[in-house]
Task: structure prediction
Amino acid sequence: MSKTRTLTYRDAIREALREAMQRDDRVFLMGEDVGRYGGAYACSKGLLEEFGEARIRDAPLSESGFTGAGIGAALGGMRPIVEIMTVNFSLLALDQIVNTAATLRHMSGGQFSVPIVIRMATGAGRQLAAQHSHSLECWFAHVPGLRVVAPATVADARGMLWTALQDPDPVIIFEHATLYNEEGEIAAEGEFSCDLDKAAISRSGRDVSLITYSGSLSKTLDAAQRLAEDGIDCEVIDLRSLRPLDDATIMKSVNKTTRAVIVDEGWRSGSLAGEISARIVEQAFYSLDAPIERVCSEEVPIPYPSHLEKAATPQVESIVAAVRKTLRT
Amino acid sequence: MSKTRTLTYRDAIREALREAMQRDDRVFLMGEDVGRYGGAYACSKGLLEEFGEARIRDAPLSESGFTGAGIGAALGGMRPIVEIMTVNFSLLALDQIVNTAATLRHMSGGQFSVPIVIRMATGAGRQLAAQHSHSLECWFAHVPGLRVVAPATVADARGMLWTALQDPDPVIIFEHATLYNEEGEIAAEGEFSCDLDKAAISRSGRDVSLITYSGSLSKTLDAAQRLAEDGIDCEVIDLRSLRPLDDATIMKSVNKTTRAVIVDEGWRSGSLAGEISARIVEQAFYSLDAPIERVCSEEVPIPYPSHLEKAATPQVESIVAAVRKTLRT
Amino acid sequence: MATGNETKVHLAREHALELLQQMILIRRFEEKCAELYSAEKIRGFLHLYIGEEANAVGVMQALGPDDAIVATYREHGHALARGLPAGEIMAEMFGKASGSSRGRGGSMHIFDARHRFYGGNAIVGGGLPLAVGLALADKMQGNNRVTCCFFGEGAAAEGEFHEALNLASLWDLPVLFICENNGYAMGTALERSESNPDISQHAAAYSIASEAVDGMNVVEVEAAARRAVDAIRAGKGPWFLENKTYRFRAHSMFDAELYRDKAEVEKWKKIGPVIRFSEWLLETGMIHQTDIDSIEREVAQTIDDAVAFAEQAPWEPVEDLTRDVMTPPAREEVRP
Amino acid sequence: MATGNETKVHLAREHALELLQQMILIRRFEEKCAELYSAEKIRGFLHLYIGEEANAVGVMQALGPDDAIVATYREHGHALARGLPAGEIMAEMFGKASGSSRGRGGSMHIFDARHRFYGGNAIVGGGLPLAVGLALADKMQGNNRVTCCFFGEGAAAEGEFHEALNLASLWDLPVLFICENNGYAMGTALERSESNPDISQHAAAYSIASEAVDGMNVVEVEAAARRAVDAIRAGKGPWFLENKTYRFRAHSMFDAELYRDKAEVEKWKKIGPVIRFSEWLLETGMIHQTDIDSIEREVAQTIDDAVAFAEQAPWEPVEDLTRDVMTPPAREEVRP
Ligand SMILES: Cc1ncc(C[n+]2csc(CCOP(=O)(O)OP(=O)(O)O)c2C)c(N)n1
Ligand SMILES: Cc1ncc(C[n+]2csc(CCOP(=O)(O)OP(=O)(O)O)c2C)c(N)n1
Ligand SMILES: [Mg+2]
Ligand SMILES: [Mg+2]
Result:
C-alpha cells in the first residue's frame, strides 16, 4: 500500500468512472459527447469501447432533457452519472436540478430519493470568456436537497465518485477546468473511495487560516509557500464539500489561528466566501483578531484576454496580499 | 402634494405599468397570461383592453424563449417588461438572463446594452409548497451585469418600475407574493419614480441594526415594534437594492448601533444575509460588539402546511429572539 | 375491471360500472375539495379536474401495477384512478402527516411509491424528462414496463416537452405521452400559444406515433390507451395520445375566467364525460338508475370517510421540519 | 455585388468574383487563425468554418445593411462576409483592445454594432430567442428589416430552438433561420441526436416555410436566401433554410476527430465550396486563373494587414478590468 503512482486529474476521473461501471451495473454515464468524442474534457475516452453505447450514452444537446432523464432513471433504479460540459450550460438544466432533483424527496414525504450524480466542469483560466468560465458552485451550495463536492486533488477526483454514487441523494461534483491536466500521486492500488463530508487540512500552520476549494487550492498552497519564506505560517483548508460545509474543521482552525482569509473563484458579491465568513462570525467571533478577508473574482463576466482573466480571478499575489493585510491588523 | 391615497401593492404595480406604457411607446409587457387572464397575480388586469395585444403580449409557456425574446427586443430598441410568474420558473430562463442579458454588454466590449426589465414573484407564505415558494434573490444578486431590486413597500412598487425602465442595463424586480394584497399610502399625484440604489431607513433606532428586504420588511418592523415595548430601540434597514448593495447605509447604521441582525427569507446557507454579514465584517469589524445574527429560512424545500411553512421562514418571533440574543452579548 | 392486453374494450356491465364509479368518485371528490377550499381546510393552489375525468380513468385501465405514472398539479383524478386511497389524498390536501406525501406537498404534489405514482409536478413540462428517465431505467434493466406521462397542451410550448419527445423517440423508450388538451393553459387558448395548434404534428416531427382521441369519452380513451400500451409493450417505442377535453371549472381557485365564454363552458358540459357515459349506459339498458344511485351512495361514503380520515389525521410535528430533505444515513442502501 | 430584391441571382462576372473573393478570404483567414493558434497568439476555443464558407457568403448577399445577424461561436466567416474589418476580427482573437469586442470576447464573441452583428454566442441555441426578439422589435416599430439567425443542426435538439421557432411563427416575425447542417455537433452525428434527422420537418411542425439547400454551393445558397428574404420582407413571417454542409476541420482545436472517417472528410472536400465554384467559373470561362491569382494576392494582403493590425494593437489596461459591465451613467439615454 505504500507504493504510489502518478496520474492526471483527468485520468483519475476516467479510472473512477471505469471502476464504478465495473462495480455496479446500474451505473451509466450520460451527457453530450461522452461517447464517440470521448468527453469534452476527454474524461471518458475509451469507455465507449469497453462499456457500449447504452452505458456510455451520448445525449443530444438538451441539458434539461437529459438531466431530467437522469433524475428519472435514478428514480427508476439506475445510478446515472450525468455529465454537463460546463457550469454555464447547467443553467439550462437548473429547473430539473433544483425544482425536481432537490425537492422530490421532500415533496414526496420521503418516499422517493434521487440517487443521481451530476458532474460538471467549472471555472476560468483557459481563456474561454464569459459564457464558459463561470464559477457558480455557490448557487448549488445554496440548495437544500443537494450535496455538492469539489475535488481539488487527484486523490479526490479518484475517490469521490464512488462515494457519491453510494449516496441516495443528488450529488453535484464540480471539476475545475484547469485541473484536468494536473498530476498527483495516489496509492498504486486498493480502495480509493473517500468521504464526501470533511474538509481537509492541506497544510497546517499557526498564523492564519486560508480556506479554499477546487481550482484555487493550488494557488493558495503556492501563496502559503511564498509566505512561509517570510516566516508566515499559513494553515490551508481544502473545503472538499461545499454543501454541507464542514464547520467544525473551519472553526477549529480559526480558533487556533485567529485570522481567516477565504479564497473563492466565485464573484465576490454573494460568493460562498461570504457564507463562510458569516459562519465564522457566528461561530468563532470572539476568536477573531482581525477582519476576515475574502479573495474572490472581480465583479465582471470573465474576459477573454489572459491578463484580464488573471486580474479577474484570485491569484497567488492577491492571496499573499490578503494574508499580509489580515496580519497587519 | 401632501394629499395621499391608499392602494394595494398590486394596484401600485398596475398603475406603474400603465403609466410606463403611456409615457414611452417602446415599453411593452410580455409574459404568460399577462393579457386575457390579467396576470397570474392580477397585476396587469385591464391593461390589455387599454393597450392591445401587441403591447400586452401573452406569451406561450416558454420562459427561456420569451425572456430571450425580451432581451432581443431590448437590443432592437424596445423597452420590454418581461413577467415571469414565479422565481421557480425563472430557472428555465436563467440561461438567457445570465449567459446573455448579463454578459452581452461586456462580451461586446460595451457596444450593446440590454435595457430589459424582468419582474417576478418570489417567496413563501401562500402555502404553494416546494415548486412555487423559493427565494432566489441571492442568485441574481450574485451576477455582474444585472441590477436587482426588491420593492418592499407600495411606494417602491409604484416608483421603481419607471426608474428601472430608464436603466440601460437589465433590471430584475422581485415582488414578494405575500405583498400584492398589502395596502400602503402614497402621494395622490405627481412623479412617483424613485431611485434604485439606496437602502432606506424604515425605522431609526440606536440599539441594533435590523437589515432586511422584500417580504420580510413588515415582519421585521413588527418585531422592532414589539421590542420597543421592552425598551429596545431597533433601526430597520430596507435594502431595496440587492445588487448593488448600499454598503454606506448599512455601515453607517452598524457603526452607530454596533450590533446587526439580518433577516432574509432565502435559505440560510449561501444566503444574501451571508454576503451582508461578510461585508459588515470587512467594513465595520471594529464597531461590532456582538456576533452578527442571521434570521433566514431553514434548509428545507418549503413545505405545504401552514405551520411548517411558518416554521421554515423568518417570523416575528424568530426575529425578536435573534435581536435579544445579539443584545445579550 | 378489465385486464389483459386486448386492445378491444370489453364493455361488460361490470367494467362499465367500474368506469362510471371512478369518474363519479373523481367528480364528487373534487366538488368536495372546492367546498373544503372555501372552508379553508385546503389551501394553496387547487386545480380541479372536473370535466376531464374520462382521461385519467380511461388511460389507467390500460396500465398495470408495475407501470409508472407521472402527472401534473392537476392530478387528483389521476391519483384516484390509479387507486391511491382517497383518505390519504384528502389528508395531503389538508397538509396532514397521514397524507400521501406526509402533507409536505399538498394538492400539487401527490406521490405514492406503492402505486408507482411519481407526482404531482407543478412545473409545466417538468415531468416529461422525468418520465423519459423512468422509461430509460426500465429499458436498461430489461423491464417490460410502461411509463405514462400526463401533461396539458400548454406544456407543448416548453422546450422540455421537445427535448423529452426527442429523447424518448431517439432511444425508443416505453413512454406513453398523454396530452390532455383542454384548450387552455390558464387563460391562454391553444391557438394563441402554438403556431400550429395541431399538437400531434409535433409528435410526428419526432417520428412518434400519435392519435387524437375524444377525451370526453371514457370508452374511446380506454381503447386508444390500450392500443398505445400494447404497441409500447411490443417494443415499438413511445406513443403519443392527444386527448381533446375541457375543464369545466376555473384553472385554479384564483381564476376569474375572463378569457372564455360561459356559453362555451355550457356547450362542453353537455357532453361531459359522466353525463354522456351514464346516459348512454342507461339508454342501452346496460345499467339502471338504481346502479347510479348506489354508486353515488358508495362514493359519498368514500368521500365522507376520506374527509373524516383527513380531519382526524395528525399534523407533522414542527420539530420534524427538516426531515426528508436528505435521506437519513440509516436508510442508506448498501450495495453491491 | 448584386443588390435589389430579385430572387434570381444575376451571376455577372463581377458578382461571381465577389463571391469567390469572400469565400477565399474566409478560407485563408481561418487557415491563418489555425497557424496563429499554434503560435499561441490566439487562445481559448477556436472553431473554424472552413468548408462551410458558401453559407455565410451566400446568405449575406440577400441581406441589407439594416438587417441584423445573430451567429454562433463559429462566426468568423459570418463576420467577414458581413463586412466586419478583418483587422478588428483578428485583433479580437488576439484579445486586443482594438478588437471587434475590445478583446473581451475572443473568437466566440465577435460583435459589431455598426454592422448590426449581434455575436458570437457560445451557448448552443442561445441566439435563437435573441433573434426572435430583434425581429419582434422591428415588427413592433414598423421596420421592414430581417433578422438572420445562424445556428448548427445540433441546436435543433435544444428546447430553446423550439421555443424560438414557435414564437417566431406565432407572432409572424421577420426571422430568417439558417440551420447550418454540417452533420455533426462536436462528435455527435445528426442521426445520433435527432429521432427525426430531417430538420426542416421541425420547421413545418411550427408552420414555418422551409427549404433544404446545398450548402456547398454558394450560388444556390444565395438564391435560396433571396427567395426567403423576399418572402419575409413581403410580410410572410419567418422562413427556415436547412443548408447541408460540412466542416473540413476539427470541431475546435481540441478535437481528436475520433468520430468520423478520414474518407468521409475527403469525399466532402472534393465538393468544397471554393474549389467547386472556382472550377466551375474557370470551366465556363467566366473567370481565368489570373483572376484567382489576383484574389489570392489581395486576400493575402488583407490578412497580412489584419495580422499586423492585431499585432500592434494595444492591450486593454488592467485598470479597466471592470469597464463595460454596466453602462456608465454618462452614456445613459434620456428619454422621453
Ligand atoms: C414552468 C411553468 N411556467 C408557468 C407555470 C404556471 N402555470 C401553472 S398551470 C399553467 C397552465 C398550464 O396549462 P396546461 O399545460 O394546458 O395544463 P392545464 O392547466 O390546462 O391542465 C401555468 C401557466 C408553471 N406552473 N410552470
Ligand atoms: C448549451 C450548450 N451545450 C453544449 C455546448 C458545447 N458545444 C459547443 S459547440 C457544440 C456542438 C454544436 O453543434 P452544432 O449546433 O451542430 O454546430 P457546429 O459546431 O456543428 O457548427 C457543443 C455541444 C455549448 N456550447 N452550449
Ligand atoms: Mg390546458
Ligand atoms: Mg453541426
About this structure: Chain B touches chain C through 37 residues (CB under 8 Å).
